[in-house]
Amino acid sequence: MWIAAIGKAAAAMALGAHDALGARVRNTLVITRAGHATSERLTRGEVELIESAHPVPDERSLAAGARLLEWLGELPPAVTPLFLISGGASSLVEMLADGASLAQLLQLNVQGLAAGIPIGELNARRARLSRIKGGGLAARLGKRAALALFISDVPGNDPRVIGSGLMGPAPGGDQVQRTIIASADDAVTAVALEARRRGFMVHAAEARFDGPATRLASRFAHELRLLPAEVFVWGGESTVQLPSAPGRGGRNQHLALGVAKLIAGEPDLLLLAAGTDGTDGVTEDAGALVDADSCARLALAGLDADTCLAQADSGTALAASGDLVHTGPTGTNVGDLVIGLKMTAARSRAR
Fold this sequence. Notes:
The structure is a single chain. The chain is an alpha/beta fold. It has two domains: 2-182, Rossmann fold (3-Layer(aba) Sandwich), CATH 3.40.50; 185-350, glycerate kinase, domain 1, CATH 3.40.1480. Helices cover 36% and strands 19% of the residues. It contains 13 helices and twelve strands. The protein is globular, with a radius of gyration of 21 Å.
């Protein structure tokens, strides 16, 4: 078995494949975000490891793309390759289309992220500049059979969107068997099951969230305040439209700071917004956990929540209030989780 694992969850997926397949694995290529391959097994020669750029591609992404195509060309005729794809592949690996330049790719990514373009649309635009996205890699397999397993961080869990369609269907058809093995729905279900096991009343959203983080902050604070539950779970991905000179932060930090404003002075309410991969935007923080006193703490530090939100500087505010959450790489990437808690002091003492 030959394995190519690409994305922010590539390291964990590759290790899982090794555990499942054992000695049948003959060759493994892992392309992931720098710092996300933390297992010693990935650094002692069992796999070929390439650490690349995310969330904005650079020359490392092009080098990784070139190596991926070389790897494809090295496949023995009788081998059915296994592709393990997760979010982040859009930035981590690239082979530019004829006439496209790295400068164009960088401009698309920077402007797309700054404008808060939904991930599906942004990935479609990325694929137009690529020789391997949008089904291009699958087309290079010709009639060769292959397996592709996906961890999805996109709405609809569509292989044509995950990683900008790095292993999406080829326009002329292919022989790739595709399976989604994890998504935001699974994460929401897991949180809800554990909360119920612990005796909490749970509200688990059925649909993924999307859209501007500030609008979602209002929605989540409203539901947290009014719905009859103690633990609330939402999964999806928000967007933030950045000013010309943004500060420090990410979409989860922006969302959390927006909620902090709305629940100020309400001691029964808390909310966590975090990336399931352990990162939020260009920061190394996963997100933030805010409560009724978050805004008071950042005010004591001489900061204003509204100003920080306008400047897309939520990370600075949440660092001052002591609310940032840092997990390090988690080994998965199914989008973002928002978890709320509503509990009176009396109920807390009773538990």
